[in-house]
Design a protein that fits this description.
By secondary structure, the protein is an all-alpha fold. The chain has helices at 3-15, 21-30, 42-53, 61-73, 77-89, 100-107, 113-130, 135-142, 147-154, 166-175, 182-195, 200-209, 215-229. It contains 13 helices and no strands. Helix 5 packs parallel to helix 7 (113-130).
Length: 230
């Protein structure tokens, strides 16, 4: 078996026996039937992954991409979560073009907020931060018309705190300030809420300048401002 095959098979052997039908039904319903689930909760899944992966051969970047693609093709959602966890392990090694291939196609394969945000944390934020040339990809996603790519672009600096390019972030939020599409509005709200941790005045100004800001986004931003006021 190939390295890719070894990793995929080991992951399936680790997770499939842990399936719980009742939990799978509840998890699938919570995620609006975007995918079937095994019914394995995150702590149990991650523990099983660690044990299964501990003795496997190291992955170079092409093999990592192949394993992730392979896990993504499996029907149950836990395998996509496992792929995101594996990517997070290797985030510091990922080259800039990994944001485009394979990450962009993964974002658009059975997309929902869970995998889109997990890929944001595992790949998009750290890789774009390390490879500023990929900011151009973020602008392309921002202008794509696809709600999931737009969400990923708006959120691509989450967690960077004072290293955030605030002008870039606020420009990305500005265009979609009046957007009522829930997942875009939520991304704006979360981005603004994060900024309140280190520059609440900038967020207050943005809210004042955008009376048309969606209720969803404004509510999240206001929560951050309330926290900042103590």
């Amino acid at each position: 078996m190939t390295v890719t095959g070894d990793w995929i098979a080991a992951t399936v052997r680790a997770l499939a026996p842990l399936a719980r039908a009742d939990d799978a039904t509840a998890m699938q319903a919570y995620m609006k039937d975007v995918s079937p689930f095994l019914g394995v909760k995150a702590p149990t899944r991650r523990r099983a992954q660690r044990e299964a992966w501990g003795t496997l051969p190291a992955l170079d970047i092409p093999d990592l991409a192949s394993v992730v693609r392979g896990l993504w093709t499996l029907p149950e959602r836990e395998y996509q979560y496992a792929a995101c966890d594996l990517l997070a392990r290797h985030a510091r090694r990922l080259p800039g073009d990994f944001v485009v291939d394979p990450t962009e196609s993964l974002l658009l394969d059975r997309p929902w907020w869970d995998t889109v945000d997990a890929l944001g944390s595992a790949v998009i934020t750290p890789v774009v931060d390390a490879h500023p040339d990929q900011v151009a990809t973020m602008w392309r996603w921002w202008d794509s018309g696809d709600r999931w790519l737009i969400r990923a672009a708006i959120g691509h600096q989450r967690g960077l705190r004072e290293r955030t390019d605030l002008d870039r972030l606020l420009t990305m939020c500005d265009r979609y300030a009046a957007e009522r599409e829930f997942f875009i509005a939520k991304a704006i709200g979360w981005a603004l809420r994060d900024v309140t941790r280190w520059d609440p005045a900038a967020v207050r100004s943005f809210l004042d300048e955008h009376p048309d800001l969606s209720t969803v986004a404004r509510r999240e931003a206001e929560r951050g401002l309330a926290r900042a006021r103590g």
